[in-house]
Amino acid sequence: SRTSDGESTTLEDEQFDDEEPPYVPPAFEIVDPAIPMVEPEPAMTTTEVPQASHPWTVPPFNVVERPKPVIHKVRAAIKITLSVAVVLSLLVGYGLKVKIITFGRFSFGMYASNMTKGVQQLKDKAEGKDIQGEELKLPEVSIAVVGYREDEEAWIACLKSLQAQEFPIKHIIGVVDGNDPADLDMADAFGKAFPEDQRLIVHLPVLLSVMYKEKYWEAIKTLGYANPTRWQYFKMWFTQAPRPGQEVAHEVAWSHVLDYLYTRSTIENWSQYKGICFSQPHGHKRHAMFTSFMVGAYALGTKDAMLTTDSDTYVYPNAVTNLMSLLMSSEKMAGVTGDVRIWNKKDSFLALMSSLRYWFAFNVERACQSAFGCVGCLSGPLGLYRTSDLMSVLGPWILQSFLGKETTFGDDRHLSNRILSLGHKTGYTHLAMCDSDTPAGYVRWVKQQTRWSKSFFREAFWFPKSFAYHDAWLTVETTKQFLYPMILTATVIQMFYRPSYWTRPVIWLSTMFGVALIKSVYGVICMRDPMHFLFGVYGFMYFFGLLPSKLFACFTVGITTWGTSARSKSEFARPESLYSRTTHIGHLVTWYMALSFGLGYFMASTFHNPIFWSLGAIGILPTYQLYHDVIVGESKYWFFVYRKRYRARRAKVADVEKVS
After folding, report:
1. Quick check: 407 and 401 in contact, CB under 8 A?
2. Which stretches are tagged as biased composition: Acidic residues (predicted)?
3. What is the pTM of this model?
């Protein structure tokens, strides 16, 4: 064939000219397949819709009458002092190498002597089946499920599981975080899960959360209160006292949002539909949750409780029954959670290890917290709240900021924190179960763990008043979890870079994995599943992935613009740039190199042989694995460019030879 200028080309060259180059994002630009975490601009979310005055002078839900918690100053001071003393004694004993039992080089120290108290068995009190005589009137509960560009199959499976609950559900409220075409596909999928006469799709041009925030700060400004000083902020943090004008501003903003909500819900008869799905401008998960809570409590009048779940979660049929039984078992109980399991544990060995970690996290750690009535995080995939308690903290919850920035993750932990800060109890029951998704790939898992760790470090001491209200266990466990990563890291660095004898790391590792083995045996006995023996392997995941991610999260807790997970299959397929990958896992590279050089230094110093310095190169192997797909993508692109240039030169040489 010939080109337009008459030059001859081969069929291979012509096919190559038409070939599309492989897509590779620019290496040093932010290209990240994650949910964009941006604060919505007020100018894009205000509304001029005429609004009618809402009639809710009295809340349409049941307000729990309970005695207001009182802090006994002397008792609280003693309790907190003893709690801190326990933690300090562990640290001092560990730092001074105090030993309880000594046998040669082997010793058992005081650190990590606190053992969890086991699974708290919570009985099902009111299942409501085969009732003889007068029919039992069950409390009302609605379900709020939010998502962002979820896989359609997982989304519909989630909705079907919510409709299959044994406990009667008043309304199922879905909120899609976004109103672009890709988001509206998720809203359309919601309609496929419900009969046509039972579902309604509502498109909100505004974010109710931003309406609230705009009106709140407008009222604060109108009231003329000056911004608190740093000392005043400290006092508000320590005493949990509201800022001047906060209550008035809240009432003004609350009424503004309710007027809009009442107008829309009345015109469109929202309460007539079992399933209602809202699409709204993209913010992030907290904005979507705010919409679902406001709609459920006021527009739909859910009197007693609201269940939260995620768009990729399958909820077991008896889950709501067991959660409601626990929630209604005591007026002091304001929120409860259940056992979150993993449905994709067969996707990879990493997912399997995560499923084992989930079992221990819920059936040991949260069960222990529940025994003291202070579960620190009511999990997003399965959290149930009393409606009145939820509404009492919703305003401050949506206003939360950290270091001058809007918080974009840790929504469930902060909500639980606010419940605890009022002196209310939170609980856990293993009888309520759900299956959720976990990352099957290592990089995505690290992103998830970093995000969760950031929310923990941010929330750990957000409400000092909670420690005064609740059992001393809350203070001890929170402080221990906060300090443990730092202590473990310092121990490892000291062992490698201040070597003493070669058996010390062996003894230390044996002790660590011995404790993991004991926990594994406990899991095998409880579940009668030998697979729990593998839990000891999770120690490697913690040491090489989670531990450095916790430290990284602690020092970057103020960064809220990345760290989220992509949801849909199309987003999973999007490549990631070198720069974006480094922002997520660069700390792992630092950790691996520190360990490999430390190992080389330790071995060379212990055995007095410089050849062991070559062990410092071991860190290159896991580093390559972390960047493998990015390196392959870049290699394919530059191979394409080189081949194109080579063929161009070859064609040019061929043309010169013909002319000559």
Report:
1. yes
2. 10-21
3. 0.82
